[in-house]
Structures are given as structure tokens and as C-alpha cells.
Design goal:
By secondary structure, this protein is an alpha/beta fold. The chain has 15 helices and 12 strands. Bound molecules: guanosine-5'-diphosphate. It holds the Pfam family Tubulin.
Length: 436
């Protein structure tokens, strides 16, 4: 397994705060201490080498780059308990933030950061023997994640066009949005990014808040709670790159199996079980019940009713105590479920991964330790309803040309607003067409 390195890039406040949750979990999974030393110095390098590089001093260093135009969040990492884990040259900040403005992140202050960021990426890639791809984490609604992130993505794809680029993207929650111009930033970022990413997994804060309050018994979730749930899902998606399994799936296989056409690359992510940490070990879940749960909207990390759409393809990623025969039975069962309808031009539909490493619960987190779990990545046409909600908000503001001058004064052409709108409308139509 050695030599299939992955480089992770965390951009903007949401991206960097997600780094905290992801790397906290990876350190637990790979028995890495806060300072980058290993609990067992003789641990086989194969498992951690995709995510960590081993130094001559016997320390491991995450293959990661964090970028934020404003320093506060990264400063917390520089001074926090993980300060010795991360390479200081890979924590990039500038002094002026993007003020929640896509155009400022893309054309203004962000422009000055991109060369330095690309230089750091090239160095990270040079350290790899056989780099497999990039995972990018950011929020489309922010100025840095949206604007700078989109420009950076374009540069990355131009330079490393043969590598896979997968994104985990926080999308604004129509109900909980805390930035007024988020619909603008989100639609503009989608428009500016769709050509350069291979897959983008949409993470909707509102859906995750609901899961935390209704399923995990946390009535007042904070970003740190949301991020740990996302961290667990990201860990599941990447487990097969790091641990042994009966059927491991690598990054390029996700693309091959999930993306039937270049633009149709926004799978819906679902996870099971959401078992609260208070109910430790009191319940056990069968493979069939875990699988069924993932096809319910209540287990999705995006708020849209998957029963209203058709599935194009679906990856089922099991981890822990799972045997192929149980998975086969669960899949047969799902195929006969009335609500899980596939498009008729893709009759097989399922790609299965089985990894032996059970999920690890973070101490003090909301999720209990369980012996098995499943994550599904479903390319479903139901995602069009989510796009429609965002486009509606975008159009309401754009019709009045509200806030547009802030974008134009940063060097963005006003016509880009219309191009972005048309592009998203075309994407919605593309999904509609999949159904027929
Ligand atoms: P940026 O730094 O300019 O890219 O701005 P942000 O990353 O703060 O982007 C704003 C969006 O990200 C809003 O939708 C916020 O709700 C969301 N957000 C901010 N911080 C976090 C976080 O730590 N976790 C999650 N899940 N969402 C966040």
C-alpha cells in the first residue's frame, strides 16, 4: 500500500477548522502523538504513509497545507496542542481577509497568496513517491474558501492535471446562513470550480446540525461538533487508502464509478450509525440495517429528499466487522426497496468497499465507538433540489443587483454573475436529463 500519498489542502476558516477535526482523528487512528511522534516507533509505515511523511528524526509530518487569508484560525493551530505536528511552512496566512467577498478572495487579496501556495504544494508533491491526488476542504460561502479557493483550484488543476482532485465543500444552509452574500459566493464558486474538480462532496451544515440534535442528543451543536461528524465521514472515505480490507477502493475508482459525465460529480454523502456516545456499546447494528439507514434522508449530510430523485450510481463503503456475504444480502435488499430507484440506463449501480479498520470515536465527541459503520456516496439526481434552493436565493438578490458593487469594485465583471447563474441552471438541467 506504500506510496499512494494524498495531499490535503484546507482553505479558509471552515477548511482549517475541519483540519482540526480530521487530523485529530487521523492521529488517533494511526497512533500518532500531539507532537508527531509515534506511540509505537516500529509501526509499519504502510498505513500512515499516505497521510504522513516520516522524517529522519523518527517524527511523522502530515502531508497538508493550510491557507487562510486572515491569521486568527491558523494562529490557534500555531499556538495550540498540535503546534509541533504541522510543518510551520505549510501554514499560510496573510494579514487581510477576504471580507466574505468571493471577488476579493479571487481577484483582490487572494491573488497575492496563490504563487506562494502553489510553491508549497509543489514541494509537498516532490516529497511523494507516487502521489495519488488531492483532498481539498473549504466553504463555498466564504470569501477565502470560495474566491481564493476557486482560483487556487484552477491553478492546481492546470499544474497537476493528471492527479485526482476531490473536494469536501461546506455549503450554506438555507436556514442557518450567517453571511448575507453566501448565495452569491456559493453560486460564483460553483461556476468557477466545477471544471477543475473531479468530485465535490457537498456538506450542508443544516443537515449535520439536525443529525447532532435529533440523533446524537446534542441540542446546541457548535462547529467543532459538526466538524467531528464530518471528520468521521472523511475518515471512512479515506480508510481504504490507509488500512487493509477485503475490497479497498482508491481515489480514482471513486471517479470511475461515481461520475458518469464530467459535470455530474456532486454525490450525496450519508453515514450510519449515528449512535450517541452516551449509549456506548448498548446497541449493535446489522450490516442490513446500517445500509438501509444510509438511504434515508435523515442520514444524509445534505438536506434534499433522495426519494424524489433517481440514483445514477452509489459507492457503499463499509468499515470494521463486515463480511462480503452480509453486504451482498444488504445490497439485494436495497435493490428491492421501492424508494431507491436507479436510472434505467445504469442497472448495476453499486460499488462496494470493505475495510477492516473499525471507526474510532474521538474522546469527548458526540459519536459512540462502534464495531462497524458505512458511508454511502450516491450520485443522485435529487441534488438538483438543493441547487434549486440556492439558485432561488441568488436570483432574489441579483434581481435587485443588491451588493453587486462590492464584487465589481474588486475587479470582477458584472457579467460573471449572469454566467454563473446560467451555468448552475444548466447543471440543474443536466441532472434532470439524467432521469430520462
Ligand atoms: P472564509 O474563511 O472566508 O472562507 O469563510 P468561512 O470558511 O467562514 O465560510 C463561511 C461558511 O462556512 C458559512 O457557511 C459558515 O457557516 C461555514 N463555516 C465556518 N466555519 C465553519 C466550521 O468550522 N465548520 C463548518 N462545518 N462550517 C463552517
Amino acid at each position: 500500500m506504500a506510496g499512494r500519498e494524498i495531499i490535503q489542502i484546507h482553505i479558509g476558516q471552515a477548511g482549517v477548522q475541519l483540519a482540526n477535526a480530521c487530523w485529530e482523528l487521523y492521529c488517533l487512528e494511526h497512533a500518532v502523538k500531539f507532537d508527531g511522534t509515534l506511540y509505537d516507533p516500529n509501526q509499519a509505515e504502510d498505513s500512515y504513509s499516505p497521510f504522513f511523511a516520516l522524517t529522519g528524526a523518527g517524527q511523522v509530518v502530515p502531508r497538508v497545507l493550510m491557507i487562510d487569508l486572515e491569521p486568527t484560525v491558523i494562529d490557534e493551530i500555531r499556538t495550540g496542542c498540535y503546534r509541533k505536528l504541522f510543518h510551520p511552512e505549510r501554514l499560510l496566512t496573510s494579514k487581510e481577509d477576504a471580507s466574505n467577498n468571493f471577488a476579493k478572495g479571487m481577484y483582490g487579496v487572494g491573488h497575492e497568496m496563490v504563487d506562494l501556495a502553489m510553491d508549497r504544494v509543489r514541494k509537498l508533491v516532490e516529497e511523494c513517491g507516487n502521489m495519488q491526488g488531492f483532498l481539498i476542504f473549504r466553504a463555498y460561502g466564504g470569501g477565502t474558501g470560495g474566491g481564493f479557493g476557486s482560483m487556487f483550484l484552477r491553478n492546481l488543476e492546470n499544474y497537476f492535471c493528471k492527479s485526482s482532485i476531490l473536494e469536501f465543500v461546506v455549503f450554506p444552509s438555507p436556514k442557518l446562513s450567517n453571511i448575507i452574500v453566501e448565495p452569491y459566493n456559493t453560486v460564483l464558486s460553483t461556476h468557477a470550480s466545477t471544471e477543475y474538480q473531479d468530485i465535490a462532496f457537498i456538506l450542508d451544515n443544516e443537515a449535520i446540525y439536525d443529525i447532532l440534535s435529533t440523533k446524537l442528543g446534542n441540542p446546541r451543536p457548535m462547529y467543532s461538533n459538526v466538524n467531528r461528524v464530518i471528520g468521521q465521514v472523511v475518515s471512512n472515505v479515506t480508510a481504504s487508502l490507509r488500512f487493509e480490507g477485503a475490497l479497498n477502493v482508491d481515489l480514482s475508482e471513486y471517479q470511475t464509478n461515481l461520475v458518469p459525465y464530467r459535470r455530474i460529480h456532486y454525490p450525496i454523502v450519508a453515514y450510519a450509525p449515528f449512535m450517541p456516545s452516551k449509549r456506548l456499546f448498548h446497541e449493535q447494528f446489522s450490516v442490513a440495517s446500517l445500509t438501509n439507514s444510509c438511504f434515508k434522508p435523515s442520514h444524509q449530510l445534505v438536506k434534499c429528499d433522495s426519494d424524489q430523485g433517481k440514483y445514477v450510481s452509489c459507492c457503499l463503503l463499509y468499515r470494521g466487522d463486515v463480511v462480503p456475504v452480509d453486504v451482498n444480502n444488504a445490497v439485494v435488499n436495497i435493490k428491492h426497496t421501492k424508494n431507491v430507484q436507479f436510472v434505467d440506463w445504469c442497472p448495476t449501480g453499486f460499488k462496494v468497499g470493505i475495510n477492516y479498520m473499525p471507526p474510532i470515536a474521538v474522546p469527548g465527541g458526540d459519536l459512540a465507538r462502534v464495531t462497524r459503520a458505512v458511508t454511502t456516496l450516491s450520485n443522485s439526481t435529487a441534488i438538483k433540489f438543493y441547487w434549486l434552493k440556492i439558485l432561488k436565493k441568488y436570483n432574489v438578490m441579483l434581481r435587485k443587483r443588491a451588493f453587486v458593487h462590492h464584487y465589481v469594485s474588486e475587479g470582477m465583471e458584472e457579467g460573471e454573475f449572469l454566467e454563473a447563474k446560467e451555468n448552475l441552471r444548466a447543471l440543474i438541467l443536466d441532472y434532470k436529463e439524467m432521469e430520462s
